[in-house]
Amino acid sequence: MYRINDDLEYLVEIYEWSGTTWKPYVADDVQVQFYMMSPYVLKTLSTDQKGLYSTSFKVPDVYGVFQFKVEYQRLGYTSFSLSKQIPVRPFRHDEYERFITAAYPYYGASFSTMAGFFIFSIVYLYHK
User: Fold this and answer.
1) How many CB atoms neighbour CB 30 within 10 A?
2) Among 49, 108, 40, which residue's Cα sits nearest to residue 68?
3) pTM for this structure?
4) CB 13 within 8 A of CB 50
5) Residue 113 region by backbone torsions, left for phi larger than 0, else alpha for psi between -120 and 50, else beta
Protein backbone atom coordinates (compact mmCIF):
# COMPACT_ATOMS: atom_id res chain seq x y z
CA MET A 1 0.00 0.00 0.00
CA TYR A 2 1.35 3.39 -0.98
CA ARG A 3 0.82 6.82 0.56
CA ILE A 4 0.50 10.15 -1.20
CA ASN A 5 3.88 11.73 -2.06
CA ASP A 6 5.78 8.43 -1.70
CA ASP A 7 8.66 7.71 -4.06
CA LEU A 8 7.71 4.83 -6.31
CA GLU A 9 9.71 2.61 -8.66
CA TYR A 10 8.08 0.54 -11.41
CA LEU A 11 9.88 -2.41 -13.04
CA VAL A 12 8.70 -4.73 -15.83
CA GLU A 13 10.47 -7.39 -17.89
CA ILE A 14 9.57 -7.73 -21.58
CA TYR A 15 10.77 -10.58 -23.78
CA GLU A 16 10.04 -11.60 -27.36
CA TRP A 17 9.89 -15.06 -28.90
CA SER A 18 12.51 -15.44 -31.62
CA GLY A 19 11.29 -18.79 -32.94
CA THR A 20 13.32 -21.02 -30.63
CA THR A 21 14.06 -19.01 -27.48
CA TRP A 22 12.90 -15.98 -25.55
CA LYS A 23 15.12 -12.93 -26.09
CA PRO A 24 14.98 -9.56 -24.35
CA TYR A 25 12.86 -7.03 -26.19
CA VAL A 26 14.70 -3.73 -26.64
CA ALA A 27 12.80 -0.52 -27.38
CA ASP A 28 12.92 3.06 -26.16
CA ASP A 29 9.21 3.88 -26.46
CA VAL A 30 7.57 1.72 -23.78
CA GLN A 31 5.48 3.85 -21.42
CA VAL A 32 3.71 3.32 -18.11
CA GLN A 33 0.65 5.22 -16.92
CA PHE A 34 -0.25 5.77 -13.29
CA TYR A 35 -3.95 5.93 -13.88
CA MET A 36 -7.12 6.79 -11.94
CA MET A 37 -9.97 7.72 -14.31
CA SER A 38 -7.29 9.52 -16.36
CA PRO A 39 -3.49 9.31 -16.35
CA TYR A 40 -1.91 11.24 -13.48
CA VAL A 41 1.63 10.22 -14.43
CA LEU A 42 2.85 9.12 -17.86
CA LYS A 43 6.52 8.09 -17.96
CA THR A 44 8.73 6.48 -20.58
CA LEU A 45 10.47 3.40 -19.24
CA SER A 46 14.24 3.19 -19.50
CA THR A 47 15.82 -0.14 -20.41
CA ASP A 48 18.99 -1.96 -19.44
CA GLN A 49 19.11 -3.69 -22.88
CA LYS A 50 18.40 -7.03 -21.15
CA GLY A 51 14.60 -6.85 -21.12
CA LEU A 52 14.22 -4.97 -17.82
CA TYR A 53 12.38 -1.65 -18.04
CA SER A 54 12.16 0.73 -15.10
CA THR A 55 11.20 4.21 -14.03
CA SER A 56 10.64 6.07 -10.78
CA PHE A 57 8.33 8.91 -9.84
CA LYS A 58 6.53 10.50 -6.93
CA VAL A 59 2.97 9.39 -6.18
CA PRO A 60 0.56 12.30 -6.83
CA ASP A 61 -1.02 14.18 -3.94
CA VAL A 62 -4.35 12.42 -4.60
CA TYR A 63 -5.57 9.30 -2.82
CA GLY A 64 -7.75 6.57 -4.26
CA VAL A 65 -7.42 3.39 -6.29
CA PHE A 66 -4.81 3.73 -9.03
CA GLN A 67 -3.58 1.38 -11.75
CA PHE A 68 -0.23 0.88 -13.39
CA LYS A 69 -0.96 0.47 -17.10
CA VAL A 70 1.47 -0.55 -19.82
CA GLU A 71 -0.20 -0.72 -23.22
CA TYR A 72 2.23 -1.36 -26.05
CA GLN A 73 1.24 -1.64 -29.73
CA ARG A 74 3.75 -1.79 -32.59
CA LEU A 75 3.47 -2.93 -36.20
CA GLY A 76 4.72 -6.47 -36.64
CA TYR A 77 4.32 -7.33 -32.96
CA THR A 78 1.43 -8.64 -30.92
CA SER A 79 0.15 -5.86 -28.69
CA PHE A 80 0.16 -6.39 -24.97
CA SER A 81 -1.50 -4.72 -22.03
CA LEU A 82 -0.39 -4.96 -18.40
CA SER A 83 -2.44 -3.60 -15.56
CA LYS A 84 -2.02 -3.73 -11.78
CA GLN A 85 -4.37 -2.06 -9.34
CA ILE A 86 -2.98 -0.48 -6.16
CA PRO A 87 -4.46 1.65 -3.38
CA VAL A 88 -2.99 5.04 -2.47
CA ARG A 89 -3.96 6.27 0.97
CA PRO A 90 -3.64 9.67 2.64
CA PHE A 91 -1.39 10.29 5.62
CA ARG A 92 -2.72 9.17 8.98
CA HIS A 93 -3.44 11.91 11.48
CA ASP A 94 -0.13 11.27 13.27
CA GLU A 95 1.98 11.32 10.08
CA TYR A 96 1.43 15.00 9.26
CA GLU A 97 3.82 17.69 10.43
CA ARG A 98 3.18 18.90 13.96
CA PHE A 99 2.76 22.54 12.95
CA ILE A 100 1.95 23.42 9.37
CA THR A 101 3.62 26.67 8.27
CA ALA A 102 0.71 27.65 6.03
CA ALA A 103 -1.56 27.64 9.09
CA TYR A 104 0.42 30.23 11.11
CA PRO A 105 -2.17 32.98 10.46
CA TYR A 106 -4.85 30.71 11.94
CA TYR A 107 -2.67 29.89 14.94
CA GLY A 108 -2.12 33.62 15.48
CA ALA A 109 -5.84 34.35 15.16
CA SER A 110 -6.79 31.71 17.72
CA PHE A 111 -4.16 32.86 20.25
CA SER A 112 -5.08 36.54 19.80
CA THR A 113 -8.77 35.64 20.34
CA MET A 114 -7.85 33.84 23.58
CA ALA A 115 -5.73 36.79 24.73
CA GLY A 116 -8.50 39.25 23.85
CA PHE A 117 -11.08 37.22 25.77
CA PHE A 118 -8.75 37.01 28.79
CA ILE A 119 -8.15 40.79 28.78
CA PHE A 120 -11.86 41.49 28.28
CA SER A 121 -12.71 39.19 31.23
CA ILE A 122 -10.24 40.97 33.54
CA VAL A 123 -11.51 44.41 32.49
CA TYR A 124 -15.16 43.38 32.88
CA LEU A 125 -14.67 41.73 36.29
CA TYR A 126 -12.59 44.51 37.88
CA HIS A 127 -14.22 47.57 36.33
CA LYS A 128 -16.18 49.72 38.81
Assistant:
1) 20
2) 40
3) 0.71
4) no
5) alpha
